[in-house]
Amino acid sequence: MTIRNSASGLLVFFFLSLVLLLSCDNGRTDKQNNLIDKSNTELTVSSTYNNSIESREASLFFWKGFSHKWLRTIVGFSIPHRISTLKSYVDNTKNIEEGGSHYSEFIMGQNTGVDGNFMKPVGHYQFMNISNVHAVHGKIELNWTDTGSGTDYPEAVSVIEREILIPLDKYDNTDKDISTVFLSGISLKTTCDDEKQPCGKTCNSNGMWPYKFSISLIPGIITREGYKFTAQIDIRRAWTPNKGGIPLIEEKPFDERLDFNLKIHYTVMGGDAAGFAVSDKSSFTVNAQLRDNKASSGQKTLHGSPGFDHATSVISSIGFQFSPHSRLKKFNHLGRYIGKMNFSISNDSYNTASGLMNYNYLFHVWSPDTVCQSNIEYSITTRLLQFRQANTIGTEKKTTGSLCCNSKDNAPFFSKWLQCGKKKQGPEQEVDAVSITSD
Question: What is the pLDDT of residues 61-70, one digit of tens each?
Fold first, then answer.
């Protein structure tokens, strides 16, 4: 009986996947951006933040990005998901030294929203022990509830900007000619509360179909109160072209309100001009398509000051945005299921005499062919940090975790999955804390 049910489920899934493929493949390849201007959309956001700061010595792990990909397949089709939990950051507040080596944790997390899946997430980092600079690590925590708008093409937009102050007792401005801020990672969790939905509606999922995701830290100034910088968030979600489901068979509702908890992990670093330098920002975008199997990659150059002996590249903003791939009206639904997310920089090659650094970038937000195509624009801002003296310049490294989510009770019968705990899939957990070392 179990074998028969399993086979029936596979046949149903294969048929439904074929329906999705046919419904999305409209033969158009135009790349015009038909994104409707939603700048006047009313948005009710209740936001608070807690600027949590802990001072450390200038021995730290630099966050160089992440790669998350769902690994489950059914009859050869990869299974993408909404975004609910999304975590990738180095926790420098847990940086300890033992026997001449430094140890900390790389936190990785992701959740499916409803159905089951597993992944082996990757975190990229580099360790450095730097002389004559001071570093402060912290997190900005924001909590808010978004609100959907629009009848034909519902969406919810969260655009938030906060000025952050690190007081003098945490960041003494003495002998700090130069200060900057950069990302140590992000931690997002979305949840849906039945009591917050209008007209007695109930939640379908804790996850969202995103169409824009952007996190930015903008360096500021040293004042008499301390160091000020700005955090900018732009997260937008919408329905999918097939309304979250399968044409004529299944439709998943667009949840009107989602609760957001976002933590932006950051490092502020400062020093005198003789021993520390920061380049101007390098911001750029790359255009691609969601179903591209090949990542968008290349090399960029950061222009620093000549004569500094050591350097590294850092990330101060990352983001992506979808836009319609077709003029068909249903493609004005901009949300998508996501199968893979990759943002990373690597292979720093620094020239002391010229102050130039070449580095490689790799972006890849991807979904399988069962998800309707979309144009995508990646964005990133990087900076070059230069140091006169450094005790330890670690090599760039990557570490791998394990995440596994069983299907929720409201998952469709034909795709319900309860395989967490097996050797291949790993334990059931949506967050993993992986030990990293300076060695």
Answer: 999 999 999 9
